[in-house]
Amino acid sequence: xxxxxxxxxxxxxxxxxxxxxxxxxxxxxxxxxxxxxxxxxxxxxxxxxxxxxxxxxxxxxxxxxxxxxxxxxxxxxxxxxxxxxxxxxxxxxxxxxxxxxxxxxxxxxxxxxxxxxxxxxxxxxxxxxxxxxxxxxxxxxxxxxxxxxxxxxxxxxxxxxxxxxxxxxxxxxxxxxxxxxxxxxxxxxxxxxxxxxxxxxxxxxxxxxxxxxxxxxxxxxxxxxxxxxxxxxxxxxxxxxxxxxxxxxxxxxxxxxxxxxxxxxxxxxxxxxxxxxxxxxxxxxxxxxxxxxxxxxxxxxxxxxxxxxxxxxxxxxxxxxxxxxxxxxxxxxxxxxxxxxxxxxxxxxxx
Length: 351
Prior knowledge:
By secondary structure, the protein is mostly helical. It has 15 helices and five strands.
């Protein structure tokens, strides 16, 4: 990648060139929600814009601080999945957050002007606190409460004005914009407000009907083996009101089946429009049972999963590739980050 192209964008304060930043937490093997919710879009964006894609390992610590024994392995495996999915280090910057210390410095400085009430009223924080506190001993930590400030720092450090998100993530970007506006009210024209780059992503349900999430233990990993994929598809949540295969089904969310059928949602992703339309009609009429429907789904998914496993295995033959890519990416990222921090320190009269 052309380094000058990236650093020029980073140094343009008031009218930055289009630049994309996004990150992913290394909490374990990637699943379909990660792929369709972010990674697939990233692969397309690298063809259109200068892009920074970050392994946000410090963000992982906000909920996983009590056990970091698998962190290094998770980082390596996740980056291998990125490469197998199509990210190209010649077209984008791939790096690790903790390799660029400026992320922490900027988060600290932004935190000086961010009201505590903004963080306490963050709906995502409240929801995660309620859900994850069932399995975590203590989540009322400074790091967990303040993760939006670190998230804002991640974006602003590279003057990224395009942040790829789905519709449900718009509040995250708006909070970053509010942090920028308040900071700029004290130190004018330091940052440009980031903008959401709305990217379409299908609803990817977990095996239990809820949103697919490692926290819920309901994921289908993108590197499932043939046997494990078969087992996951067999266990998918369908329609609890169907006792016999001839009973009318409820494939989409409704009063009888509020989450909707996970198998049908995955058909929407992997099958063609005509098939989905016919399957919906047959299910509602009781013309096909859940077991047969899952067999069709497995046939649709088997090919793409096999292709991904093959690409992943080829990339894994070079064990040094990930560390080399991360080192090279960190060098490029640090060049841009250093320019930003020099500007911030001047604005705050710290130099």
